[in-house]
Write a structure and sequence with these properties.
It is built from three helices and no strands. By secondary structure, it is mainly α. It has one domain. The protein is 85% helix and 0% strand.
């Protein structure tokens, strides 16, 4: 076995060790991103409720409830965004199929 072969094997082994260490860090990074998404959703739902209650009270004070319920535009429009944010934080792993691709790449990396 020549010197170059030994250096190549050592380089390969050191890369493998770095990859194994990165897996734990990557896992922590993914959990951190998920935690931020969930905390962000909780903050957003509080703002959604606060602002839409305020708009509904404002509508009622200014119209005595006799006019078109215009806060519905905010409730529905913003509500659609809230549904997406909820799904992204609690039920989806980012883009559809991202989990499968991640597992496939991770499996290829360990072979």
């Amino acid at each position: 076995m020549g010197r170059e072969e030994v250096e190549e094997k050592q380089s390969f082994i050191s890369k493998k060790i770095k990859i194994n260490k990165m897996d734990a860090q990557q896992k922590d990074d993914l959990l951190w991103k998920l935690a931020k998404r969930r905390a962000g959703f909780k903050w957003s739902i509080a703002m959604y409720m606060t602002m839409n209650i305020f708009l509904t009270v404002l509508w009622f004070i200014t119209t005595k409830g006799d006019a078109f319920f215009w806060p519905a535009w905010s409730i529905c429009g913003w509500g659609m965004g809230m549904v997406y944010q909820y799904l992204n934080a609690y039920h989806l792993d980012g883009l559809p199929g991202a989990t499968e691709e991640y597992k496939k790449l991770k499996k290829q990396n360990h072979q």
